[in-house]
Amino acid sequence: MMLGGFALAGCGARPPAPRAEPSGAVPSRGASTPPASASPSPDAAASLEARSRAQVDVYAADRPGMLSPVVKGFRSLVYVPNSESGTVDVIDPETYRIVRHFTVGALPQHVVPSWDLKTLWVNNNRGNSLTPIDPRTGRPGRPVPVEDPYNLYFSPDGKYALVMAERNNQLDLRDPHSMKLLRSLSLPCRGINHGDFTADGSVFLASCEFSGDLVVLDWRTPSVIRHIHLGHMSMPQDVKLSPDGTVFYVADMERHGVWLVDAATYKVMRFLPTGRGAHGLYVSRDSRHLYVSNRGEGSVSVVSFRKRKVVDVWRIPGGGSPDMGGVSADGTKLWLSGRYHGVVYVFDTRDGRVVRTIPVGAGPHGLCVYPQPGRYSLGHTGIFR
């Protein structure tokens, strides 16, 4: 889609037709199948699985009030990167007013909390730089040169910054503080931009929107473990792991819903329709629901993790373009950018009402609500564990 004379990169900017890829989950070269082991009886296995799922919640540290000592002195603010304007608007979530506005590099895509929670990074995609923000003051620092930073994640051990180099079709591993390039991994897909980690943190599942693919990555090697082609009609977007660690949810903007992918076998389980232009994925503070922003129809679908189905739909009066954002620290608000309307929407998560629509710059994208509960950040606009 064109805005102000140019197309916004990523998250829906379709380049020339993707090359054909084989369907299904395909092991990468050198991948091996683990040896079979003795299996418990069906009843014992079911009981063990039920107990395991009941005990696991990868978001257990993200409950209201569970702020790390690192962030407890930080002022609560919402940071909005305006892709077309090349600026960031900073909003006070109490008054819903913009309290700061500053210029950054060209085409800022997301504002990303660092693994150690001490820095926010503005991803200046076309500007080939990252602008640091001090969350204690909300003020920007000197930009750091980084090529093609569409999105940014951090390895679970905090050793690497993972730059999603979308136009270069590669994953760049960098020092998480200096952002010095350490290693690069070329990918068998086009348009890598979103992802999430398995519960044990060993594997990273990433989406490639321009070729309709998912890639399963061992970030430590780094290497491609699996390559999953969803189809030429697919445009996968945000990725989020279920609280019990068993399923990856992958938004698909062209298929208008989310894919469910087994987090152990990496096989596609099924597709769940949500709404037109399914885009961003956010977990409720009680780990019960997944909020899916449907950018093409101005709505948010509420998916029950237990039932694996849509249980509610919140609609923006008059329509809109809800994109990326995050949940407030207390869990009562969902903040989403209005990508094609130059606004930010604030939903009350208790009843789904839009309580505020705040004008910002042009092309607002991956806004960040900060601080949020959690021990460390895995990146994007706020994936905390």
UniProtKB/TrEMBL annotation:
<dbReference type="InterPro" id="IPR051200">
    <property type="entry name" value="Host-pathogen_enzymatic-act"/>
</dbReference>
<dbReference type="InterPro" id="IPR015943">
    <property type="entry name" value="WD40/YVTN_repeat-like_dom_sf"/>
</dbReference>
<dbReference type="InterPro" id="IPR048433">
    <property type="entry name" value="YNCE-like_beta-prop"/>
</dbReference>
<feature type="compositionally biased region" description="Low complexity">
    <location>
        <begin position="11"/>
        <end position="47"/>
    </location>
</feature>
<feature type="region of interest" description="Disordered">
    <location>
        <begin position="11"/>
        <end position="49"/>
    </location>
</feature>
<protein>
    <recommendedName>
        <fullName>YNCE-like beta-propeller domain-containing protein</fullName>
    </recommendedName>
</protein>
<feature type="domain" description="YNCE-like beta-propeller">
    <location>
        <begin position="76"/>
        <end position="368"/>
    </location>
</feature>
<dbReference type="Pfam" id="PF21783">
    <property type="entry name" value="YNCE"/>
</dbReference>
<dbReference type="InterPro" id="IPR011045">
    <property type="entry name" value="N2O_reductase_N"/>
</dbReference>
<keyword id="KW-0732">Signal</keyword>
